[in-house]
Amino acid sequence: MDGSSTAKPAALDGFDTAAHIAALHRDGYTIIDDFLDAGGLARFRQSVAPLLGRYLGRNPFEGRRTERVYTLVARGRIFEEITDDPRILALLDAFLRPAFLLSASHAIRIHPGEAAQSLHFDDSFYPVPRPRPAISISVIGAIDAFTADNGATVMIPGSHRWSTAQVQETLAERRSTGGARGEISLEMAAGAVAVFQGTLVHGAGANRSAAPRLAFTSQYCEPWARTQENFFLGVPRERVREMSPALQSLLGYSIMPPFMGQVSASHPAKTLEDGWVPPVVRQAPGAD
After folding, report:
1. Residue among 35, 20, 198 nearest 104 (CA)
2. DSSP assignment string, 35-101
3. How many structural domains is the chain composed of?
4. How many CA within 13 A on the CB side of residue 272?
5. Residues sharing a CB contact under 8 Å with residue 80, sequence separation 6 or more, in sequence order
6. Would you call 159 exposed, middle or buried from its count of C-beta atoms within 10 A (0-12, 13-18, 19+)?
7. What is the model's pLDDT at position 279?
8. On the CB side of 33, how many CA atoms lie within 13 Å of its CA?
9. Nearest-CA neighbor of 28 among 146, 123, 100, 105?
10. Taking CA atoms, which of 5, 31, 174, 239 is between 20 and 30 Å from 24?
11. Host H or E run for residue 141
12. Calpha distance 136→101 (Å, rounded)
């Protein structure tokens, strides 16, 4: 499905799927306030703690004072649960084709003194002119509360509908003046997540506080698009076997009809079966 889909939203107890879809169409983003409860936040913090303190960004975009943990989905059960959460999947169903993929999965901790990230949109690396439907949908989750002082994401509501020229004009304005018309600071309580279209202009804010700000991001893309992270190489098959069918599909063990993603004419999920052996590729006699 694309951004103009009229498919009936999935029904989930206590979750107004239709209202969130409407906000995504109207503003380019929506906020799920109660995505993680206190227990979920505690599990996230406990699971991510051993992974932190190892990696700082290599350039201003990653953040010189920003820690990142890549391939987060494969590093603990809580990270699997936030990736294939039914509420997120219900929203993705309204914007992406069936068999959509997980494109990126990170934990992000912005330390005090980090500068604001440059404004951008997440599916800018797909060379398709704007305006257009989003090729990806992003999720940013607040493990620490997001405030204007600690690096809350800056967004420009409505920018998901802009042309390429409008985006370029706004980026030039930001570079020359330090601000852009219409930008807001996405302040959220701990446990909330923002879901937004890959065409929405945004960027991490500067952390002017005295404490780090911890978050996660999950990004999803159309099943025909190349993913940012190569999960086939990044996640061992032994680990994938233990994941839910929904998560296996997100990692690429799925087919986009009629046969995109097949493995030697077989469904890729078969590679997870016990005893599966890849076909032997033999060179033809006399071939160079």
Report:
1. 198
2. SS-HHHHHHHHHHHGGG-SS-B-SSTTT-TTEEEE-SGGGS-HHHHHHHS-HHHHHHHHTTS-TT-E
3. 1
4. 21
5. 73, 243, 244, 247
6. buried
7. 75
8. 2
9. 123
10. 174
11. strand 136-142
12. 9
Residue 72 C-alpha from the chain's centroid: 11
Number of H helices, E strands in the chain: 8, 9
Please tell me the predicted confidence (pLDDT) of residue 9: 57
**Alpha-carbon distance 285 to 288, whole Å?**
9
Which amino acid is residue 158, in one-letter code?
A: G
pLDDT at 8: 52
Q: Are 76 and 247 in contact (CB under 8 A)?
A: no
Which domain covers residue 88, as residue numbers?
Answer: 17-265
**CA proximity to 136, closest of 81, 95, 170:** 95
Residue 270 lies in a domain: no
Claim: this prediction has a pTM higher than 0.90? yes
Give me the CATH number covering residue 61: 2.60.120.620
